[in-house]
Design a protein that fits this description.
Layout (H helix, E strand, L loop, with lengths): L18 E3 L6 E3 L4 E7 L15 H12 L11 H13 L5 E8 L3 E8 L5 H20 L11 E4 L3 H17 L33
Antiparallel strand pairs: 1-2, 3-5, 3-6, 4-5
Helix pairs in contact: 2-3
Organism: Labrys neptuniae
Protein name: Transposase
InterPro entries: RAYT_transposase, Transposase_17, Transposase_17_sf
Length: about 210
């Protein structure tokens, strides 16, 4: 069926994948099979002035990534119980709702690279990760209130080279942030959970120690 879009680039009547849409401040691209790089973060991980939406998404993303690596906010994801909870949520529906290629759980944000399976929408997958983990993380912490920041960044891969570079960027994030000296030392990422060599699919090398 032909997709029809309104003047503000939102899908018209009908379900399924949305293509380009902008429900809040950030634009998103929702389509099956395309590999997506997604970043979502804790609610207090950035000061409000960092997210000036008058800037382009590229400029804002670079500034956001730099600020996130400074480890601002409560950094609840540094709690091993909460990091394990988030990691479990990411892995739970691998090869069912999406194919997960790479991920890294930092103290105040999460990076993941995946492509959706047909029938699953980007916003719904990210919402399921965040809603499930927020409720349980708040119980672990003995608190109430907002856990994750409402929106998220996504960028789709245009080539295999870009995808390879993105996997490297994701898995080297703890090194870049000064949290370890080698990416395999970081407990909460796909780098440490991959078996040695042989497979062209990083997701097939996940281990569950």
């Amino acid at each position: 069926m032909e997709r029809k879009y309104s003047a503000n680039n939102l899908p018209m009547e009908g379900g399924g994948h949305r293509g380009w849409y902008q429900p809040h401040g950030l634009p998103h691209f929702d389509t099956p099979e395309i590999v997506q790089f997604v970043t979502f973060r804790l609610a207090d991980s950035l000061p409000a002035w960092v997210e000036d939406r008058r800037e382009t998404s590229v400029e804002m993303r670079r500034r956001v990534e730099s600020k996130l690596d400074e480890g601002m906010g409560t950094c609840w994801l540094a709690n091993a119980d909460i990091a394990l909870l988030v990691e479990g949520a990411l892995l739970a529906f691998h090869m069912q709702r999406y194919r997960l290629w790479s991920w890294c759980i930092m103290p105040n944000h999460v990076h993941c690279l995946f492509n959706l399976k047909d029938g699953w929408r980007l916003a719904d997958v990210v919402k399921s990760w965040k809603s499930y983990t927020a409720a349980r993380a708040n119980r672990i912490l003995g608190r109430q209130g907002v856990f994750w920041q409402a929106d998220y960044f996504d960028r789709y891969m245009r080539s295999e080279d870009q995808m390879a570079l993105t996997i490297d960027d994701i898995e080297r994030n703890p090194v870049k942030a000064g949290l370890c000296t080698h990416c395999t030392e970081w407990r909460w990422s796909s780098a440490r959970r991959k078996l040695g060599g042989g497979s062209s699919d990083p997701a097939s090398n996940f281990i569950t120690e």
